Amino acid sequence: SLPDMDLELLHDPEDELLCASLLDEVRAALGRAPLGSKRCWRLLMPAQLQAQVRAELLRLACSEPCGLRGALLDLCVEHGKACHDVGHIAADPGVVPTFQLTLVLRLDSRLWPKIQGLFASGPAFAPLKLSTGFRVMKKKLYSSEQLLIEEC
Questions:
Q1: What are the TM regions of this chain, as residue ranges (predicted)?
Q2: Which residues contact 113 (CB under 8 A, 6 or more apart)?
Q3: pLDDT of residue 71
Q4: Are 141 and 100 in contact (CB under 8 A)?
Q5: Most buried by CB count within 10 Å: which residue of 103, 125, 146, 152?
Q6: Is 45 left (phi over 0), alpha (psi -120 to 50) or beta?
Q7: Which is more confident, 121 or 133?
């Protein structure tokens, strides 16, 4: 593994722009996330979580042949013991994916007692805040290497 300073030198400026666009798509997918019942929730992504996810995506992409452009991102939200699929995003639809990232975000557990009652009744759209903790799994699509799982 390369030292952090060397990793910063390997960052592609195009990846920086692509990552910002990818995070916009993640926020849009979270804005229309179906969690459980037939209700839609608007999941709010705190700035600290966005910064951590951005850094992790760029770090995981720097060793890939196409950089972040080769990423296929599966977005999930952990809710209780269930993990809900929120979306699938190709970082660059014009590039054949070389690796798959599964990003698992969590609801802020401090809110759970307050929102339990919302799942049965209430408005059709309700905002929920995500925790700053997340898990990301990386699978290379061109190699038989083991799955890499990181908890942040």
A1: none
A2: none
A3: 95
A4: yes
A5: 103
A6: beta
A7: 133
Token pair for 73: 């991102």
Write down the pLDDT at residue 36. Answer: 57
Instruction: Write out the two tokens for 59.
Output: 């770090």
Write out the two tokens for 132.
Answer: 């700053």
pTM above 0.90, yes or no: no
Joined tokens for residue 86: 């929120």
Which residue, chain included where needed, has tokens 């910063």?
8
Residue pair 77/83 in contact (Cβ under 8 Å)? The answer is yes
- How far from 61 is each of 34, 36, 110, 119, 133, CA to CA, in Å? 28, 32, 32, 37, 20
**Nearest alpha-carbon partner for 73 in 43, 104, 52:** 104
How is residue 23 written in tokens? Answer: 């995070």
β-strand pairing of 125-140 with 40-44: parallel
